[in-house]
Give the backbone structure.
Amino acid sequence: MAGLKILLSYIKVLWQFLLIPRNWLFCVLNGIGYHTSWRFYGLPFIQTYFYRGKIEIQEGFVARSAVESNSIGVFQKVILKSEPGALIRIGSNVGISGSTISASTEIIIGNNVLIGSGCLITDSDAHPIDPIARIQNIPNATKQSPIEIEDDVFIGARSIILKGVRIGKGSIVGAGSVVSADVPPNCIVAGNPARMIRIINLN
């Protein structure tokens, strides 16, 4: 039994080593660079979809797309979707589990941010409010506005962050919340729409 455990540990190390060139090639081909500190969990391939807008990611990035890689599981892969001319900028030591980040303008995520399983962060309404504009697919009729998530924020599982929102440094978004307005620094918000629950006192 001990010998089997040792063999499995060697296989795990070898597998992680083999992932590096695979992930590097995919990232480079998609124009986002690559850092050896990035970690991707789940199959197939890199588990994170990159589209043709601009995506910038700093060191320590973790994308969890495997069910076993998250304590409550995931029901989708991590998706980073940046439309042409849009920007997704992700700071250092950011962890994302089975969530979608969809940018039509700009989504900025600071350092040490955790995004729980099944979240959606989108800076666009996706479709116009006017039904005629929807039917006729009129360009530029859909409302869009940038999102900024500051350092040390934790976004709970199944939450939705809507266009134009700024979440202040150190704040927590409770699981299942819909955030449609700015969140001050160092507070807890929850609900639909998300409302202030309390101030975080670290003293």
Q: What stands out?
A: The CA atoms of residues 178 and 192 lie 5 Å apart. The radius of gyration is 19 Å.
